[in-house]
């Protein structure tokens, strides 16, 4: 049994109470629903104004709303909840990092960081939760059914050239992610059209479409030493619609390290678009 499988096994059934630190999009809602099905009786949601969907209130027993940057208030609320396990789910709009108004705790944390990116900021936040006795679980916890195994997921297989572009894109994604640049790379016929930067996945895909037109190969992967407690790659129906807008040819994700929300719907949507949907094993590189 490898290390990742052992960790997953050890975490099964770990808690009946859960804090969800909820960012934007459908991911926090899907995680809350899945956690309920797996026996979690009590959910406390820490939500963020302007980011988290209001529907989280229906999925949790208690929801507290915060401004992004109120680290001290979030920590105190989680501590008072008495719950000792938490999951970070959902992203924060990138520009929020430049608009945040941190409280004293947030200012102290930021002051310690020589560089400010997802890895340093959220890594430090994880440390703060540990100090109050709260364990942050991997972001895939309760979403194991949404982690695809390696192989062709949809009806269409990539062509020979598309397979070469997938390999190139995966190599580039792994290299650039080590510099905290992003998780998505778009390739067409051996040419790199776009590498995700601060704008996020969907905007990077749209940028590639403007440059290269239809037929692009989109690859999404995490860095090799990615901390799975935050910022795990996620694909949902919104991204599938963006792929349709540029008439993309392939979406390749990293097997076992990408959450695919409503996977059956994603596969059906890929088939409708005649998009090759593939989960790539790390060994492909």
Structure, described:
There is one protein chain. The strands form three sheets. The chain has a six-stranded mixed β-sheet, with helices on both faces. Strands 3-2-1-4-5 form a five-stranded parallel β-sheet, with helices on both faces. It has eleven helices and 13 strands. It has helices at 3-11, 27-37, 56-59, 71-81, 96-99, 104-111, 118-131, 160-177, 201-212, 237-245, 263-273, and strands spanning 17-22, 42-48, 62-66, 85-89, 135-136, 151-152, 184-188, 191-195, 217-220, 234-235, 250-254, 259-260, 276-280. The protein has two domains: 3-136, Rossmann fold; 147-284, Cytidine Deaminase, domain 2. Helix 2 links the parallel strand 1 and strand 2. It is α/β, with parallel strands linked by helices and 285 residues long. Mean pLDDT is 87; it is low at 1-12. The protein starts with a helix and ends in a 5-residue tail after the last strand.
In short:
The chain is α/β, with parallel strands linked by helices and 285 residues long. It contains eleven helices and 13 strands.
CATH class of the largest domain: Alpha Beta
Instruction: Give average pLDDT, whole number.
Output: 87
- Uncertain parts: 1-12
| Residue fraction in strands | 15-25%
In percent, how helical is the residue content? 25-40%
CATH superfamily of the largest domain: LpxI C-terminal catalytic domain
Strand order of the largest sheet: 6-13-11-9-7-8
CATH architecture type of the largest domain: 3-Layer(aba) Sandwich
* Shape category: globular
Number of strands: 13
SSE run = HEHEHEHEHHHEEHEEHEEHEEHE
Instruction: Report Rg.
Output: 19 Å
């Amino acid at each position: 049994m490898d290390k990742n499988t052992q960790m997953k096994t050890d975490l099964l059934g770990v808690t009946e109470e859960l804090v969800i630190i909820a960012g934007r999009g459908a991911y926090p809602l899907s995680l809350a629903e899945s956690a309920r099905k797996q026996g979690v009786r009590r959910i406390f949601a820490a939500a963020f104004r302007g980011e988290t969907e209001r529907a989280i209130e229906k999925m949790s027993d208690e929801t507290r709303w915060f401004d992004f940057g109120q680290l001290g208030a979030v920590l105190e609320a989680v501590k008072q909840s008495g719950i000792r396990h938490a999951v970070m789910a959902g992203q924060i709009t990138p520009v929020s990092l430049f608009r945040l108004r941190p409280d004293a705790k947030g200012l102290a944390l930021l002051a310690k960081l020589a560089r400010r990116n997802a890895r340093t900021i959220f890594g430090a936040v994880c440390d703060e939760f540990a100090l109050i006795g709260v364990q942050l679980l991997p972001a895939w916890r309760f979403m194991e059914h949404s982690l695809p195994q390696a192989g062709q997921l949809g009806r269409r297989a990539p062509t020979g050239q598309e397979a070469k572009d997938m390999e190139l894109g995966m190599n580039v994604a792994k290299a650039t992610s080590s510099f905290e640049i992003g998780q998505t790379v778009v390739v067409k016929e051996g040419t790199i059209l776009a590498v995700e930067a601060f704008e996020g996945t969907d905007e990077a895909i749209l940028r590639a479409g403007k440059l290269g037109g239809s037929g692009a190969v989109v690859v999404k992967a995490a860095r090799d030493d990615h901390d799975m407690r935050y910022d795990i790659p996620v694909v949902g129906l919104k991204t599938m619609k963006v792929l349709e807008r540029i008439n993309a040819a392939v979406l390749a994700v990293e097997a076992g390290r990408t959450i695919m929300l409503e996977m059956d719907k994603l596969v059906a949507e890929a088939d409708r678009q005649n998009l090759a949907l593939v989960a790539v094993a790390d060994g492909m590189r």
